[in-house]
Amino acid sequence: MLKVPQKPWWPTYKNPLFTGIITRHFEFSAKANATTVLDLLKKAQAKPDLLILGKDYVGIPTHEHTIDSPFLVEGTDIEITHVPDSAFALGVSLMCLALDEIQLGGIQWHRLIKDALQGVKE
Q: pLDDT tens for residues 17-44?
């Protein structure tokens, strides 16, 4: 793995994995609130860098309530924030910030799509 100069609250290696969970419908209730969502994440073996919870809530990595990086790294936590009607836009923006840091080679999109569609029966 290549090492890169360390920016505070960023991964220490090139091309880190970025994961996200996107839900179309999500509502907080007496039984499901930000604390219960975060408690579930603490139990998970792999934690996402991004949560888009319906149209109004987004979970993003923060350090002391500040967004320093789109990646969840040691010393940062997911913070769920109410962003009325803007969760998807903010989540995609965070994903774009992450993609700016990931240096991919050429991807053969046509071949990938063709291979995926070969298994589809009409």
A: 899 999 998 887 766 677 777 777 777 7
97 burial via Cβ count (<10 Å: 0-12, 13-18, 19+): middle
Q: Residues near 115 by Cβ (< 8 Å), separated by ≥ 6?
A: none
Order of strands, edge to edge, in the sheet holding 77-82? 20-23, 50-53, 57-62, 77-82
CA distance 87 to 57: 5
pTM for the structure as a whole: 0.74
Kindly list the domain boundaries of the chain, sorted by start residue: 20-118
CB distance 51 to 20 below 8 Å: yes
Partners of 58 in the β-ladder: 52, 81
Annotate 79-90 with b (16+ C-beta within 10 A) or e (fewer): bbbebeeebbeb
Residue closest to 91 by CA, chosen among 68, 60, 67, 61: 60
What's the token pair of residue 1?
């793995």
